[in-house]
Design brief:
With 664 residues, the chain is mainly α. It has a domain at 46-207 and 214-245: Cytochrome C Oxidase, Chain A (Up-down Bundle). The protein has 20 helices and six strands. Strand 4 (562-564) and strand 5 form a beta hairpin. The model is unreliable at 3-33 and 644-664 (pLDDT under 50).
Length: 664
C-alpha cells in the first residue's frame, strides 16, 4: 500500500513516495513507481491502465482497418487477385475478430477504467492488481491470436466459427486453435474487469452519490459489466468444447457421432447478441455525457435513458435466434424471436428521442466531439431501422448471408460504437493529457469518416438485396447486372469509400501527433463540463481527488459552478473550476493511501499464452506453464497488501521526494 503523508507540497497537496516493504519486514520488495518505463509496466493505477488499454486498442484498430482495406481492394473489381481464397477467408475472420474483441471492447474498457472512478468520486478501483491483470491478459490474447499468421495461417472460419467448418476436417491448420484459445484468455480479462468495475461502482461511490445521481456513462458501463459477467461464460463454454474437439478428439459438434452443430450456433449467439450491446452501450454512455455539455442543458429524461439502457441489457438476452432463422428452428421459435427483435427497438428508440430532445432548444456548440455524437445518432438510427427488417422472418431468410447484413451491422457497430468512441476521444482528451485535440483537424476527421463510412457500407444494402453473398472472395462480370443495380459500380464505390474512411482515421493520428508536440495546455474546464471527473487536475493526480467530494446533485460539478435564480430560473456562475480546485487543495486529506505497484499481474498473465501454446503443440509445455501459473498465484497471494506507516521515514528533503514521486 503506497502511503501519501504530505511531507512536501505539490499543487496544494503534500505527497510522499510509495512505500516499498523489504524482505526483512516480511514482504516482497516491489518496484517503486517512477516516471520511467517501470511505472507503466508494474502500474496498478486505473488511469495508466486506461491509457494502456487505449494505446493497445488503437494499434489493433489500425491492424483491423488494414485488413478491411485489403478485403475491399480484393472486391473492387471482378475476379480480384489481391488475395487468394484461403487468405481472404483468414482476412475477413481476423478483421472481425480484431475489431470486436481487440479494438471496441478494449477501447470501451479504456474509457471505463479511466473515468468510472473519477465520475463516482473514488481514488481507484476496488481491485487494482486484478485490473492490471486484465490488461495484460487482453494484450497477451491479442498477440497470441495474431501469432497464428506466422504458424501456418490465421483462423479462417469467420468470427462466428460455425461448426462443422471450424472442425479439424475443414480447417486443419492451427489458426482456429489460436483463435479459440486466445479468446479464452480475452474472456478471462473481460470477466476480471467486469467483477472489478461492478464492485467499484456499487461500493466506492462518493458520499451522497446514489445510483440515480451517477453519470449516464457510468450507468451504462455498469449494465455492460453485468452483460459481460453473464455472457462471457457462455462463449467460454463454446470455446472450451471447440478446443477439446480440435485437440483431444471430442465430438461435441460432430454429426457423424450423433451431435448437433446447431449447439455451437446457440452457444455462440446467446453470447453474440448481448455482445452487440456490450460494444455499443459504452458509446451510448459517452454521447449521453457529450450532448448535454455542448447543448448547455441537462440530459432530457435522465431516468428514461438509464432504465432504457438496463432494458436493452435485459431484453438483449432474448433475441439471439434471429441470427438463426435460416437454420430450421420451426415456426414457434421464429415467431417468438421475431417479436423480441421488434421489442428491443423500443428502449433503443427511447434513447434516440432523449438525445434529440436534449439537442432541441439547446445552445449548441458544434465541436468535433459534438459532430461525432450527432453522427452516432444518425448512423445508428439507419442501422437500427435496417435491423428491424431482420425481425420479419421471410425477409430475414432472404437477407441472411448477403451484404445487406454486412451493411446493417457496420452501421450499428461502426456508425454506433466507433463514432461514439471518437466523440469520447475529443471530449476527454484534455482531461487525460492536459491538451486539447485540434478542432479543425477533428472536424475534417469527422467528415472524412462519415463520408467514407456511408460510401463503404451504404452500397452494401443494394449489393445484398441484389444477392451478393457475404464471404465470397470473388465476383464475376457475368453476375454484375445492369443499370442502377450493377454490382461492379457499387463494389467500386464501396472500395473507394474504404480508402476515404482510412484517410479519416489517418487524420486522427495526425491530430494526436500534432497535439502531443504542441506546448499549449488545455484549460482546467475547457468545455464547461457537468460531471465529477472535471473536478480535479488535468491530467488527474495519482490519487484523483485531494478530498473525496460529497455529492448533492446529479451533475454535481455543474451545480458547484452555477446557482439557479429562484425567480427567473436562470443559472448564474458562482465559482470557476479553478476556484473549486483551489478549495479542494486547501482542504486536502492528510493521509491518502494508494495501492503499490506490482509485477505479479504481468507474471500471472504471461503464463496463460504458454499454457495455450502447450495445448496446441506439446502438453508438457502446458504443464510447465500451469506450474508457473500456480507459483505466480502464490506469489500474488503472499504479496503484502498493506505497508505499516511506521516502517517508512519521510524523505529528508523536497529534492529526494522529487526523485521518487511521480506526482512531484
Amino acid at each position: 500500500m503506497a502511503i501519501i503523508e504530505r511531507p512536501v507540497t505539490t499543487q496544494g497537496v503534500e505527497i510522499a513516495p510509495p512505500a516499498t516493504p523489504s524482505r526483512a519486514q516480511g514482504g516482497f520488495k516491489r518496484p517503486v513507481s517512477t516516471t520511467g518505463w517501470k511505472s507503466w509496466l508494474f502500474t496498478v493505477d486505473h488511469k495508466k491502465l486506461g491509457i494502456m488499454y487505449g494505446v493497445m486498442a488503437m494499434f489493433f484498430f489500425i491492424l483491423g482497418g488494414l485488413e478491411a482495406v485489403l478485403i475491399r481492394l480484393q472486391l473492387a473489381a471482378p475476379n480480384g487477385k489481391v488475395l487468394s481464397a484461403s487468405v481472404y477467408n483468414q482476412m475477413f475472420t481476423m478483421h472481425a475478430t480484431t475489431m470486436v474483441f481487440l479494438f471496441v471492447m478494449p477501447m470501451a474498457a479504456a474509457f471505463a477504467n479511466y473515468f468510472i472512478p473519477l465520475q463516482i468520486g473514488a481514488r481507484d478501483v476496488a481491485f487494482p492488481r486484478m485490473n492490471a491483470f486484465g490488461f495484460w491478459c487482453i494484450l497477451g490474447a491479442g498477440i497470441f491470436i495474431n501469432l497464428s499468421w506466422f504458424f501456418g495461417g490465421a483462423a479462417d472460419g469467420g468470427w462466428f466459427m460455425y461448426a462443422p467448418n471450424s472442425g479439424p476436417i475443414f480447417s486443419p491448420s492451427h489458426g482456429v486453435d489460436f483463435w479459440a484459445l486466445g479468446l479464452q484468455i480475452a474472456g478471462i480479462a473481460s470477466l476480471t474487469g467486469a467483477i472489478n468495475l461492478i464492485v467499484t461502482v456499487l461500493n466506492m461511490r462518493a458520499p451522497g452519490m446514489s445510483l440515480m445521481k451517477m453519470p449516464v456513462f457510468t450507468w451504462l458501463q455498469l449494465v455492460v459489466q453485468f452483460l459481460l459477467l453473464f455472457a462471457v461464460p457462455v462463449i467460454t463454454v463454446a470455446l472450451f468444447l471447440l478446443s477439446f474437439q480440435r485437440n483431444f478428439g471430442a465430438t461435441f459438434f460432430d454429426v457423424s457421432a450423433g451431435a448437433d452443430p446447431l449447439l455451437w450456433q446457440h452457444l455462440f449467439w446467446i453470447f453474440g447478441h448481448p455482445e452487440v450491446y456490450i460494444l455499443v452501450l459504452p458509446s451510448f454512455g459517452i454521447i449521453s455525457e457529450v450532448l448535454p455539455v455542448f447543448s448547455k442543458k441537462p440530459l432530457f429524461g435522465y431516468p428514461f435513458v438509464v432504465f432504457s439502457g438496463a432494458a436493452i441489457g435485459f431484453v438483449g438476452w432474448g433475441v439471439w435466434a434471429h441470427h438463426m432463422f435460416a437454420s430450421g428452428l420451426g415456426p414457434v421459435s421464429v415467431a417468438v424471436f421475431s417479436i423480441s427483435t421488434m421489442a428491443i427497438a423500443i428502449p433503443t428508440g427511447v434513447k434516440i428521442v432523449n438525445w434529440t430532445l436534449t439537442l432541441w432548444g439547446g445552445k449548441l456548440r458544434f465541436t468535433a466531439a459534438m459532430h461525432f455524437a450527432i453522427g452516432l445518432i444518425v448512423l445508428f438510427t439507419i442501422g437500427g431501422l435496417s435491423g428491424v427488417t431482420h425481425s420479419v422472418a421471410p425477409s430475414d431468410t432472404q437477407q441472411t448471408d448477403t451484404y445487406y447484413i454486412v451493411a446493417h451491422f457496420h452501421y450499428v457497430l461502426f456508425g454506433g460504437a466507433v463514432f461514439g468512441l471518437f466523440s469520447g476521444f475529443y471530449y476527454w482528451w484534455p482531461k487525460v493529457f492536459g491538451k486539447t485535440l485540434n478542432e479543425k483537424l477533428g472536424k475534417a476527421n469527422f467528415w472524412f469518416m462519415v463520408i467514407g463510412m456511408n460510401m463503404t457500407f451504404g452500397p452494401m444494402h443494394i449489393l445484398g438485396l441484389q444477392g451478393q453473398p457475404r464471404r465470397m472472395y470473388q465476383w464475376t462480370e457475368a453476375r454484375a447486372g445492369e443499370g442502377f443495380f450493377n454490382l461492379a459500380f457499387w463494389n467500386q464505390i464501396a472500395s473507394i469509400g474504404s480508402l476515404i474512411l482510412t484517410l479519416g482515421i489517418f487524420l486522427f493520428i495526425v491530430n494526436v501527433i500534432k497535439t502531443a508536440r504542441s506546448k499549449e495546455r488545455a484549460p482546467l474546464d475547457p468545455w464547461d463540463a457537468r460531471t465529477l471527473e472535471w473536478m480535479t487536475s488535468s491530467p488527474p493526480k495519482e490519487h484523483n481527488f485531494d478530498v473525496i467530494p460529497t455529492v448533492h446533485h446529479l451533475d454535481e460539478f455543474f451545480h458547484r459552478k452555477y446557482e439557479q435564480d429562484p425567480v427567473t430560473h436562470e443559472y448564474k456562475q458562482i465559482a470557476t473550476a479553478e476556484e473549486i480546485m483551489a478549495d479542494q487543495e486547501a482542504h486536502a486529506d492528510k493521509h491518502i493511501h494508494m495501492p503499490s505497484p506490482s509485477y505479479w499481474p504481468i507474471v500471472l498473465a504471461a503464463t496463460l499464452p504458454v499454457i495455450m501454446i502447450g495445448v496446441i503443440y506439446s502438453i508438457p509445455v502446458a504443464i510447465v506453464g500451469g506450474i508457473f501459473l500456480v507459483l505466480a498465484m502464490f506469489g500474488w497471494a503472499l504479496e503484502p497488501s498493506t505497508a505499516p506507516e511506521t516502517d517508512f521515514d519521510p524523505p529528508a528533503s523536497e529534492e529526494s521526494t522529487k526523485e521518487l514521486s511521480p506526482l512531484v
